[in-house]
Amino acid sequence: MKLLMIVLIMQRLTELVIARRNEKWMKKQGGIEVGQAHYPYLVMLHVLFILSFTVEVVVLQRSIHPSWPFILVLFLLTQIGRGWVIYSLGRYWNTKIIVVPDVKLVKKGPYRFLKHPNYVIVAVEFIIIPLLYEAYITSVVFTLLNIWILSVRIPTEERALQNLTEYGREFTKHNRFLPSFSKKV
User: Where does the signal peptide begin and end (predicted)?
Assistant: First the structure.
């Protein structure tokens, strides 16, 4: 478990460094930040998730799940997905909602298939990371809290994209839930 915790913490800290660098660049491009009111709750959610997971495993003496190899593969797939998201968005990836007006939407990588793949990845992580060590309380509580924060965050992000980019027009052309097998967009 120690190695997993070190990996998660280092990963999150690295993402914050990337996000801060990208934030500076996007704001120089005229990027507008929205959702500042809920952002501290999002950060708190992720910090408390790691703490809750650690406490539940240590205090309640949870053991590794019998299906840990399968769960570990799922975890590794989420990490590949996370990297794919960050790579695909490039300088536009951030932990905050920052939209550069009139920017061309990213429609490559996982964004060919989903509007918000990063949120799907985090939702899966909030389930499988605790399950790896049978931390069922953390899994349930943080899945529910994540649903709540995303019920605020996604509409906020959608409104910003709708108001500042061609987002609305693009999604009347095609659905971003299933891959498009027609001409490349």
Answer: none
Domain that holds residue 132: 35-173
Residue 128 lies in a domain: yes
Is 178 part of a structural domain of the chain?
no
Locus of tokens 């899994």? 139
Q: Which of 98, 94, 115 is nearest to 170 (CA)?
A: 115
Query: How many domains is the chain built from?
Result: 1
pTM here is: 0.88
Helix-, strand-, coil-residue percentages of the chain, each rounded to 5: 70, 5, 25
Largest CA distance in the chain: 55
Q: What is d(CA 130, CA 137) in angstroms, rounded to the nearest whole number?
A: 8
